[in-house]
């Protein structure tokens, strides 16, 4: 592990390669899982505020779930998350012309409708962050659904931390990311 600021970073971020291959996985990360996307309290409030801007991109099923449950729910672990359609797919999704499940919140952002891109937990995926009182544990979550992303990343020789540069900066800042780059390039962590 590397310690950068208050974050304990798994070496997997430096050692593993990754590049989403949406044509193969079809956006499975928005469909598979035990719960909805983890949200901060600020994100839960923001989703409620921007719902009218995001709804035009959502499926009718997603709109119905949000209409009934709200823009966020508390899961069985006590975490605030996005609601799910049929206890499976995030309510804030749609399928594009290729059948790929995508984020309606991000689509609204890319179309200039809102300044909120999407929950940071989604932006960071397949990295998962567990926040504790004194530190954050920054870990790579290796899932079967992401096998195409691992294969594509290896083919492109793209380390996970470089693939997720933008969301890591969004979460921890430019200076933090530069420290991560220095650590990765120094390679003292390699055996």
Automatic annotation (TrEMBL):
It holds the Pfam family DUF3109. Belongs to the Rv0495c family. This is DUF3109 family protein. It comes from Sunxiuqinia dokdonensis.
């Amino acid at each position: 592990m590397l310690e950068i600021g208050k974050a304990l970073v798994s070496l997997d971020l430096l050692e593993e390669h990754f590049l989403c291959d949406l044509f193969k996985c079809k956006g499975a990360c928005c469909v598979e899982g035990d719960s909805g996307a983890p949200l901060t309290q600020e994100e839960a409030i923001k989703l409620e505020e921007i719902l009218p801007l995001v709804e035009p991109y959502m499926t009718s099923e997603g709109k119905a779930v949000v209409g009934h449950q709200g823009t966020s729910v508390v899961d069985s672990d006590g975490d605030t998350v996005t609601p799910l359609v049929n206890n499976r797919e995030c309510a804030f999704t749609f399928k594009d012309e290729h059948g790929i499940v995508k984020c309606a919140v991000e689509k609204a952002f890319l179309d200039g409708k809102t300044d909120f891109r999407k929950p940071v937990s989604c932006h960071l995926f397949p990295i998962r962050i567990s926040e504790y009182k004194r530190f954050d544990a920054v870990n790579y979550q290796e899932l079967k659904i992401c096998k195409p992303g691992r294969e594509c990343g290896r083919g492109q020789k793209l380390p996970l931390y470089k693939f997720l540069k933008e969301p890591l900066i969004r979460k921890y800042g430019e200076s933090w990311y530069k420290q991560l780059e220095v650590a990765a390039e120094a390679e003292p962590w390699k055996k």
